[in-house]
């Protein structure tokens, strides 16, 4: 799905008024329901007071997975939330992955559990940026310019 020209989805949400409703590309980007406990890390992901999209528990299923429903937080951000931009390298110095996180150590644990390339990581570099919006922009620019092996979004040469 194409991004709005020159703006991230988060910036577009910040510019959206509640009376306008959720823009279609944001509704597509953030589905209404997410099954599985593995997505619980995204619940409550609007620590700056919004606006933003987070997921809240909807119902418990028999296999102890919860279904999360999209919740739109309207308003304006009160305080920018510092966010980490990180780069993961292999032992030869090849860039494996670029990402962002509010909690990088927790994110790296998730990568170690779900990414088959994680054992190749030999070095991590990271920078704290002033806000999530700034980090989203820096992440997209880094992926486009540096072409990490395992990023798919923003990377036309990804495997």
Q: Can you describe what's shown?
A:
With 159 residues, the chain is α+β, with helices and mostly antiparallel strands. It has 2 domains: 9-73, no CATH class; 83-146, no CATH class. The chain contains 4 helices and 6 strands. The strands form 2 sheets. It has a 3-stranded antiparallel beta sheet. β2 (52-60) and β3 (66-73) form a beta hairpin. Residues 1-5 and 39-45 have low confidence and may be disordered.
Give the averaged pLDDT, no decimals. Answer: 74
Strands of the largest sheet, in order across it? Answer: 1-3-2
Give the CA-CA distance, first to last residue.
Answer: 19 Å
Largest sheet: 3 strands, antiparallel
Which sequence of SSEs, written as H and E, runs from N to C? HHEEEEEHEH
Poorly predicted runs of 5 or more residues: 1-5, 39-45
Class based on secondary structure composition and strand pairing? alpha+beta
State the domain count. 2
Secondary structure: helix percent:
10-25%
Number of helices: 4
Morphology: globular
Give the total of beta strands: 6
Strand content: 25-35%
Radius of gyration: 17 Å
């Amino acid at each position: 799905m194409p991004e709005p020209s020159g703006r991230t989805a988060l910036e577009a949400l910040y510019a959206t008024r509640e009376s306008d409703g959720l823009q279609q590309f944001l509704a597509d980007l953030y589905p209404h329901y997410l099954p599985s406990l593995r997505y619980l890390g995204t619940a409550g992901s609007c620590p700056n007071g919004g606006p933003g999209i987070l997921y809240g528990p909807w119902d418990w299923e028999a296999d102890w997975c919860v279904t999360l429903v999209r919740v739109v937080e309207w308003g304006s951000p009160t305080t920018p939330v510092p966010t980490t931009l990180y780069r993961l390298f292999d032992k030869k110095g090849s860039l494996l992955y670029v990402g962002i996180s509010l909690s990088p150590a927790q994110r790296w644990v998730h990568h170690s559990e779900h990414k088959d390339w994680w054992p190749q990581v030999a070095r991590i570099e990271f920078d704290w940026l002033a806000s999530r919006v700034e980090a989203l922009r820096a992440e997209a620019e880094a992926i486009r310019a540096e072409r990490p092996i395992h990023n798919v979004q923003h990377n036309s040469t990804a495997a």
